[in-house]
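During the reporting period the student researcher (J.K.) took over the structure-prediction task from the postdoctoral fellow and processed the backlog of single-chain submissions. One of the processed entries is reproduced below for the supervisory committee.
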Amino acid sequence: MGAQRLGLFLVLTLLGLALPEFSGVAEGYNRPPARKNLDVPSDTDPDSNSPEQVHISLVGEDKMRVSWMTKNPSPATVEYGTSPGAYSSSATGSTTSYSYLLYHSGEFHHVDIGPLNANTVYYYHCGSSPGPEFSFKTPPAAFPLTFAVAGDLGQTEWTNETLQHISKSPYDVLLLPGDLSYADFKQNLWDSFGRLVQPLASQRPWMVTEGNHEVEKIPVVHSEPFTAYNARWRMPFEQSGSESNLYYSFNVAGVHVIMLGSYTDFDPASSQYKWLQADLAKVDRGRTPWVVVLIHAPWYNSNEAHQGESESIDMKSSMEELLYKGRVDLVFAGHVHAYERFTRVYKDKADDCGPVHITIGDGGNREGLATKYEEPKPAISMFREASFGHGQLQVANGTHALWTWHRNQDDNETVASDSIWLTSLLATPACKK
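J.K. obtained the following structure tokens:
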């Protein structure tokens, strides 16, 4: 990048804008008109140090991580119990903050609490100053289990509608395959996003992985990628033997979930590849008969958007065989702003022992929908539609699960726009390893 172009880029960055080169927009793809971001202001007094942007995540099968932000220094302490206002237990954790150009964050606190009982409501309080009481429900210890799945959320009116629909569903854990806030260098939008999702994310665990909009790396002036993401959304990577917050795994009620990083090294010599290989080898299908993987950039995609990208093509080339040999049941992806479900597939062909690939990058981002599909529709593509929405994976038992996708336009949430019963590969005799 020449000096003149670098200077222009820095000016645009300081104004809260970004050049297409760093915005995650694929060349040759004309997006539909952008949608305006919602701006969710802080609802606390400017002088208050009350917790905000509260969200929770799973840490092991009987612990929960509580994360929040305060404007000023505050103890990283959580008091909790099973009755409102009665906190029989407490725990302390860690605090971090960061700077990004002219932005200086508040303090982000992460506290692991537990052991906790399954399928139980807990009430909790963050920090030492007077503040609101929150509550969450732990997932069940055994089937049935319900995941909500939404990608590329952003913070628009479409996002708000998606979140309202999710809030009406009886989900236990939310899975988000990348592109959370769409802050794109404007760090105050990370704060707005945290406030927007707090009503849901403080009540049920949100398990996320990063997308291209989380990279936020600027040559020369801010060379460290994922600064905001890593500070705000600390996932349980250490517990799964990972050395990076960008990829990890966890178990919940008979499901092993693997969150991969599309925007960190994934070739066979990489740490992520070696970690994935070891993680799949450790899966006990007797305890977790289902294996689900999340990525951001889809490996299978018949939309005209985001074709030919390394994060899709090269990552698939490196890792698809690992997932196939590991008998992964489902792969969820985002990135493409539309919905598409493929049949069980491996190496571009239908394969009864391959995973079902589902693109669900339609949560509500400001960039609009990817409305153009390749024609004719590939035989391996079962259903595709460019509408905003979200999905639910209801795992009934160790052998069967119901996947449904809902358009935001459907007022009646019980009406599924796309629905299919899935049989686990563990229960498919021809696919037993």
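The committee noted the following: The longest strand covers residues 339-346.
J.K. will present the remaining backlog at the next meeting.
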